[in-house]
Amino acid sequence: MVWAFVFVLLGICSRAEGANAGLKGRVTQKGLQYGRQFSLEVLKSLLQKEHVLDLNGSYNIPLLGDVGYSVARIQIQELQLRESSVSFSEGTGIRLVVSNASILLSGAWRVTALSIPDSGSFDVRVTDLSLSTELGLSWDERSRPQVWAAYCRSSIGRLHVKFHGGASWLYNLFTGALQAPLRYEVNKQLCPELRKGIGDLEQVLKTMQVTAQLDPFVAIDYSLVNRPVIAREHGDMDLKGEFYGVGKRRGSPFSPAPFLLPEQGDRMLLLGLSELSANSAAWVYFAAGALRRNFTDSMIPKLSPFRLNTRSLGLFFPELKRLYPNMPLELHLSARKQPLLTCWPGSLDLALFGTAEAFVVLPNATLAKAFLLDLDASLAGKLHLDSAKVGGSVALRNFSMSVARPHMGSVQRKALELLLKLVLRMVVLPMANKKLKEGFPLPSIYNLSLVNPHVTINQGFVLVATDVLYKA
Predict the structure, then answer these.
(1) 239 with 265: CB under 8 angstroms?
(2) What is the DSSP annotation of 151-191?
(3) Domain 31-206: which CATH class?
(4) Which helix (H) or strand (E) element contains residue 68?
(5) Residue pLDDT, tens place only, 216-250
(6) What is the per-residue burial (b if ≥16 Cβ within 10 Å, else e) of 319-356?
């Protein structure tokens, strides 16, 4: 049951059936076994609550004659699940089997014997309890996850009754007469209460959001794109995993390509992130005009010999230095196309397509156009992941520059390109790698943290294979 929530939140599937997914993942048999204890806790929470049950009847007891009785407010005080197993039910969902369990029940009793009413409380110890149930997993017409009680069966071995209050000393002598009807009623209630709890979960899933806004520009769609696939050794789902713009929603120009998760059962959880997710996010930011930033000389490190003024850039734009001697510049950097991420075995390639437009800051604070450059860069990236953070590193593969509009005379293009490449290698990328090395914290989902995660970059997708740890 808990893994059903994990499926919902992380999105999981390895078979390329129907629509292709941007996010894939898999809970393995190892992961399901680890989640067994949480499933048992969920089972306990469904059963350990007050049950409105009125059991009425009468029995003929020696010396007392016909005794009318009623039992109400049955509640589970203690539940011990000694032997249990959990497995995937191929084509359906998750199967949970509990045997040799015991339950301590309490409730209120009322009897009428010899026309005299009496009342009190009672305890019932149920032993040799067996319960077998299956949780079905599917999806509804709105691409939300769907669960249902596919199967349930229970049986009770022995039952011991103890009365308290009233003339309990007398009734305790004749508890054998109540064992059969109580055993029947308790057994009859177990599966309906379990189905009711699963029905409550289904109602929650019907109202679950399948989109989330991440910032003022971008939101993510994590709706299901295929029916969950439950195999013998793993459970899978597919999520869309596509980012879109806040406000007016427009479709991304990217389409997810099919990819398969490996048959790997030594980790609890496998997650696959396709190029689609990263590229759709980059496209949204580009379309929203968010990939731009302005720089002034005050933002350049004080120790840098290169300044953002006409004296420094005049070495490459002689006419600029002559017309505006020793005046400050303002540089506007922006993307002229969306960045493009490509996954290759062992490496990430990030293509950047930018423009750099420089303006002279005049004494009256107005801006005069100086030049416009097109800047293209290709970066090689790596990912690092631990239990708490995700980080990485980048290196420059290639860099090229062209002068789109020289507003002020000729340009020393090769020398400027060499300088910019040097600045990228010596200043920009070391600063970026320092931040990437520090990493970014991973969100906690239902108090689950990653244990010894391993990241591999494959053709078209990034794979994370990990164990998990639950902390209450």
Answers:
(1) no
(2) EEEEE--EEEEEEESTTHHHHGGGTHHHHHHHHHHHHHHHH
(3) alpha beta
(4) strand 65-80
(5) 888 888 888 888 889 989 998 888 888 888 877 76
(6) bbbebbeebbbbbeeebeebbbbebeeeebebbbebbb
Q: For all residues of the chain together, what is the average pLDDT? A: 82
Helical pair 176-206 and 36-47, crossing angle rounded to 10 deg: 110
Task: For residue 133, give the nearest of 176, 97, 85 by alpha carbon.
Answer: 97
Count of C-beta atoms within a 10 Å radius of residue 457: 18
Report d(CA 87, CA 233) in Å as an integer: 8
- The pLDDT of residue 76 is above 80: no
Q: Is 24 helix (H, G, I), strand (E, B) or coil?
A: strand
CA 168 distance to own-chain centroid: 54
Say if CB 220 and CB 11 are below 8 A apart: no
Q: How would CATH label the architecture of 291-441?
A: Super Roll (3.15)
Q: Of all helices (H) and strands (E), which one includes residue 285?
A: helix 275-287
Residue 293 region, left (φ>0) first, then alpha (ψ -120 to 50), else beta? beta
439: left (phi over 0), alpha (psi -120 to 50) or beta: left
Q: Rounded distance, CA 464 to CA 269, Å? A: 8
What is the structure's pLDDT at 444?
65
Which residues in 127-155 are b (16+ Cβ under 10 Å) and which e?
eebbbbbbbbbebeeebbbbbbbbebebe
CB burial string 35-72: b at 16+ within 10 A, e below: bbebbbebbeebbeeebebebeeebebeeeeebebebe
* H/E segment holding residue 143: none
- Asked if 401 and 424 touch (Cβ cutoff 8 Å), the reply is no
Q: Are 293 and 355 in contact (CB under 8 A)?
A: no
- pLDDT of res. 398: 94
Domain-wise residue ranges, the chain:
31-206, 291-441
* Rounded alpha-carbon distances, angstroms, from residue 278 to 190, 275, 288: 47, 6, 16
3-class DSSP state of 13: coil
- Distance CA(166)–CA(120), nearest Å, equals 6
**What single DSSP character describes residue 424?**
I
| Two tokens, residue 411 | 């340009």
CA–CA gap between residue 151 and residue 155 (Å, rounded): 14
pTM of the model: 0.73
Dist CA 156 CA 179 (whole Å): 11
Q: Are 118 and 28 in contact (CB under 8 A)?
A: no
Using one digit for the tens of pLDDT, what is the confidence trace for 101-120?
888 888 887 877 777 788 88
